[in-house]
Amino acid sequence: MKLFNNISLFFLFFLSISNSVFGQVDTVLNMAEIQVSAHKIRTAPIGTQAVEWNTQKLEQINAQNVAELLNNETPVFIKSYGLGSLATSSIRGGSAGHTLVLWNGLPIQSPMLGQLDLSLLPLNATEEITLQKGGNSALWGSGAIGGVISLQNQPDFSNKISAQSGTLFGSFGTFEEQLKLNLGNEKLQSSSKVFYNHANNDFSYSISPSLPEKTQTNANLSQWNYLQDIYWKINRKNRIDAHFWRQYSKREIPPLTTQNQSLAHQDDIATRLLLNWQRIDNQSVLNGKIGFSDEHNNYFDDIILLEARNRFKSLIGEINFQKALRSNQKIFLGGTHSITKAWSDGYVNPSVENRTALFTSYQFFQSKFQAQISLRQEIANDQWVPIVPSFGANVKLNRHLNWQFKVGKNYRLPTLNDRFWNPGGNPDLLPESGWSYESTISTYFNTKSLDFEIALTGFNRTIKNQILWIPLEGESFWSPHNISKVWSRGLESYFSISYQNEHLKIALQGGYDFIRASNQTSLTLPKIEKGEQVIYTPKHQTFGKFSLTWKKVQLAYRHSFTGKTSGVNEILTSYQTGDIRLQSSTKLGSSKGSIFFNVNNLWDTPYFVIERRPMAGRYFQIGLNIQFISK
Amino acid sequence: MKQFFTTFFLFSALLISAQTIADFENFDLVAESFLNGSDGTESFESGNINLFVDYNPAWNSWTGFAISNTTDTGTPGPTNQFSAITGEGAEGSSNYAVTFASEPSIIYLNDNAIGQPIEGFHITNSTWAYWSMKNGDGFAKKFGGSTGDDPDWFLATFKAYRNGLLMNDSVDFYLADYRSQDNADDYIISTWEWIDLTSLGDVDSLQISLSSSDTGNFGMNTPGYFCLDNVTTASEPLSTKNLNNEIDFSIYPNPATDFLIFDWKEAKGTAQIFDYQGKNWLVQELDNGQNQINLEALPKGFYTILINTDNGFLSKKFVKN
Lengths: 631, 321
Fold this sequence. Notes:
Chain A is mainly β.
């Protein structure tokens, strides 16, 4: 029953140290690239702002999981419940359920909650992370309203054996260890990854200058991840990938500042399997995949003697086909079907959901003009979801000036909890849906040593039939209804400038986002006034990052400002935080290593992202990464 | 002087004999159990009052009143929503009533007590609400807040319905009060306390509403429960017998529009119609045979028809469209 919100997009690109917006689009428009990467038409569609991080970039970033990545490297608003606790994204005024999360092209958020805890996704689980901002339901379906986060595993067929170790020690009993082993040859590759982290998260925080500091309690975190990827090049055209991901997370839930004690804890256990087949011909790519998830989310509170056990199993299959037509067009067709069964102490009976969707997209591109039109039709539980179209265009106004535009309809299907929770579940809910528009004007130029980039995006989105849990007159419980309407609009600005010579690189990036996400309906309970800002949606957010690289040593400082927000019970004041990172890398033969030192919340700012959930003050991390490579 | 005392004691005896106490001991509960309507019961009668419960079997949820004898004073949270923080009924008794009153709940008076004062009753916190206010939980704050200085309060307000109208006069009772400048004066009720309601005057039914300083966008965060016992009215009870299972009684049409019809083959009786807030919309003497009640003056909504007879009472719910 919670609402959220979000932030901007341009940053994303630039914060990722290299790829520019247009670099992404240009990649999409490169035919050769299309033939080896069947997904660019979906992961970076024309008109969409997208940013991509690969392994090399991720190694230089002060972040251990996807939530920290987005929080530290983009202006996406991350609703963090505290160090090691639940973290969800809010993009452009959307809720956590308005961000779709994909693993190798298949959705992995909980169908029961409609969202995913991004703090449970370690960065080393993947070789590539892409963030698309804005609506993308025509290509990705339900939930792709605010944005899409995509995790992609990638093979390395360079016929090398590599072993990698990463170790991190930090404040509050933090210890992380990750091991990665790549074996294989030019035809068969295996990638094994193990990741473990533990933290006590017993940081001190202050409620008021006149009161003694308190120490966070019941905040232990332990996480295990094991991933196994197998890539087999059957022949020149065909490849099969198999992926296995086992995840176990055990977390204590710390007390609120208005709570004396908590003995609550939560276990998240996930098993994910994916089989992917890809056939690449000269002008086409055929891709089929089948995925299976079995996930448990169990919550215990030993004070109130509560046990809440939830589980779902999901089987999903997809096939898609992409073909180049002549030299300046391509078409993409696909279909997907999923079956989900869920069990919960909150359900009377296990709930079952079936979804089937067909989607298509067409791209046309010239040197100065590119356009893409997409269409999706979904049937969920025998109910037809209205057809979802989208259109995007990119116009190169001159050598340095670019204009992008996108319009599309987006939707989110009700979650299983919305439909089946006892009491209150409403099986007759309609999907949330609405139109979104966005336009970006940007300029870019570079010389041998200087790069400059500036971009401004405006967006406008309305979501109707938004689902809210409300108490009906005469009922003793709350139930979900399609009664809310939210209008989000805003401006996202970004600039980047960098200077580089043989040994030195200086880069400065910054941006400002303004997001106005207003409720368009008034309600008594929950108390909502027409026109008021959606809770946990800062109107103003700014961000700046300065980095200085001298040979193999890099010093980076990030500073951010988040405007005030309103919570369920309280107003949360604005706050500023700064992080600093010093990293040095070295190479010995074919092996390499790096050491880094992070100071997070450098200015020891006391702040809250979520009311009554204190964030940590200044804390430190030191880490060592070593990679051995042999032929 | 002797004559004065004789007169005083005679008068007191008359007063005492005119009191009726609803102590809920007429419910035969096994140890550590409760009645919340899950057995099909729609109301609980004790003394001169009727307490209605609305149980939803599809959702396994209830609202209104429950009768309990559970004694768990240590477990907070919804798994222990039927316990009083005292661990027993008032004055050491076994049974007591619990109300879930985040929306106003109503104590209905039986025919013989209608229009007469309610003298008062014993009141205390539920275990859930007590510990929630004392320590906070994942939803509601501990009273005093993170600094201990927040002027928090949890308040029960009582108002009388008389002749179909909700009176303005009210009696307030603070189940917790942290408003004092001196934190040492802050308190959360953990014993049975007597609340005097005679200032409300004559009462047809009694509305109870709860409010709390801990209220956010999603309404009151403090668990909306409290417990009551020994509801003392000023008259003798007519009958405490629920006749719903003994008399074949049906009303039609339901949903109704302009009128309600039913056959009445029993002895003399009186019908009353209450809305879900406890407002008494009409009183009608019943004739033997077919009776018709005009509903034109009633707004659309959910209602209960309560019929009192010399032998007991019965009730039915209906909807007016």
